[in-house]
């Protein structure tokens, strides 16, 4: 189990919830360990996890067409309700292996008409027909929400996506292990991309090499911003046929997904000498991130972390440096809490995993960015990174 269930239960008690329902792709996967594929590839498909209070078993609600995913994923929740029609036949002349036996068992279970019918059935069996239920509002369609409220009129449904965010903010040891591996694979992809750096190589060719390394190491590409020269100042630069020239800066703002968990990091390199201004400005944004390591610890106000990082970059060489945020949490979603901004009311807690970043974009010049994945430890910070933060000269 990856989910921080003790934290979930504590927050449910605090918020007065008799049950909570996960509905969006990230929360369904996080809470159950089940990856409902259709949720991740298009909008609209419904999958839920019902998590009742003490004394009741949780339930996964999923479309019949996804039942074949259950044996390989082995979710920790054993009660799986299916809805919708899907035809699959069984060769009764052979002995089914364990995976096929489980599929046969699941396909032999009751098929509810739709996702809401399955959810309502599970709730009624557990006696959840009144009280207060938190529902993650980000994945359920308005039509399904209307049906759910009509079927259970005595329940007060309260939006609780923010509760799931608060739960996910504190990582379990297994989550931290996966995030560390995701970081290592992504760093390897940056190295792989830079291994082909020479005059004439295009941004697009570098991205292909980056993505290939991710895939070769069982990770999936998610973000691949790689820009050369003045194109590096494009905030969300998408690789083009721009060819690398001597003196060009190369900016990476990249990430992947490994076992459903995200990586997100930034590094800079240059083919030959990029010039004094780039060296000076890059050193400033690097020192901003390094200053974060000096002060990160449980209890630190996130707003204070923001202010100190910005002030460091300003002091170290970019006096006009300004940002809306200098990082964010990361986990099964690329932007878990906290958002490292001046307006944040959060404080750092042990076993948060955050991305600390100091991007600087100047059109006509360059984009400079350092971003590290960092775990908040009992008394400080632990980098999940192995690549040096300094500007790499090729």
TrEMBL record:
Picking any one GO molecular function of the record gives: aminopeptidase activity
Task: Name the keywords, alphabetized.
Answer: Aminopeptidase, Hydrolase, Protease
Residue intervals of the Creatinase N-terminal domain:
7-170
**Pfam families for this protein:** Creatinase_N (PF01321), Peptidase_M24 (PF00557)
Q: Does the keyword Hydrolase apply?
A: yes
Which residue range or ranges hold the Peptidase M24 domain? 177-378
Q: Which InterPro entries is this protein grouped with? A: Creatin/AminoP/Spt16_N (IPR029149), Creatinase/aminopeptidase-like (IPR036005), Creatinase_N (IPR000587), Pept_M24 (IPR000994), Peptidase_M24B (IPR050659)
Q: What PANTHER family does the annotation carry?
A: AMINOPEPTIDASE (PTHR46112), XAA-PRO AMINOPEPTIDASE P-RELATED (PTHR46112:SF2)
Q: What is this protein called?
A: Xaa-Pro aminopeptidase
């Amino acid at each position: 189990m990856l989910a921080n269930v003790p934290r979930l239960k504590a927050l449910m008690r605090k918020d007065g919830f008799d049950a909570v329902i996960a509905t969006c792709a990230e929360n369904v996967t996080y809470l159950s360990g089940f990856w409902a594929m259709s949720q991740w590839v298009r909008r609209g498909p419904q999958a839920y996890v019902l998590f009742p209070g003490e004394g009741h078993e949780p339930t996964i609600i999923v479309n019949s067409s996804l039942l074949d995913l259950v044996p390989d994923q082995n979710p920790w929740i054993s009660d799986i309700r299916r809805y919708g029609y899907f035809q699959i036949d069984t060769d009764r002349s052979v002995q089914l292996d364990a995976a096929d036996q489980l599929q046969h068992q699941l396909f032999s279970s009751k098929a509810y008409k739709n996702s809401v019918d399955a959810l309502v059935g599970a709730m009624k069996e557990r006696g959840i027909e009144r009280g207060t239920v938190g529902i993650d509002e980000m994945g359920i369609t308005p039509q399904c929400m209307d049906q759910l409220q009509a079927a259970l009129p005595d329940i007060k449904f309260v939006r609780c996506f923010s509760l799931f965010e608060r739960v996910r903010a504190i990582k379990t040891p297994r989550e931290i292990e996966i995030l560390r591996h995701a970081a290592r694979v992504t760093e390897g992809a940056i190295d792989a991309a830079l291994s082909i750096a020479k005059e004439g190589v295009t941004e697009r060719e570098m991205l292909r090499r980056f993505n290939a390394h991710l895939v070769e190491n069982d990770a999936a590409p998610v973000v691949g911003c790689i820009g050369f020269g003045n194109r590096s100042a494009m905030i969300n630069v998408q690789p083009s046929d721009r060819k690398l020239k001597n003196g060009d800066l190369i900016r990476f703002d990249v990430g992947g997904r490994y076992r459903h968990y995200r990586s997100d990091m930034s590094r800079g390199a240059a083919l030959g000498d990029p010039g004094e201004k780039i060296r000076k400005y890059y050193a400033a944004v690097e020192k901003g991130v390094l200053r974060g390591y000096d002060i990160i610890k449980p209890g630190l106000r996130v707003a204070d972390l923001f202010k100190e990082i910005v002030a460091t970059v300003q002091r170290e060489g970019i006096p006009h440096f300004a940002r809306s945020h200098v990082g964010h949490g990361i986990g099964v979603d690329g932007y878990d809490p906290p958002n490292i901004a001046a307006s944040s009311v959060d404080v750092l807690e042990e076993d948060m995993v955050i991305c600390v970043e100091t991007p600087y974009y100047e059109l006509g010049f360059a984009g400079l960015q350092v971003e590290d994945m960092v775990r908040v430890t009992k008394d400080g910070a632990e980098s999940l990174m192995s690549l040096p933060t300094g500007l790499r000269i090729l």
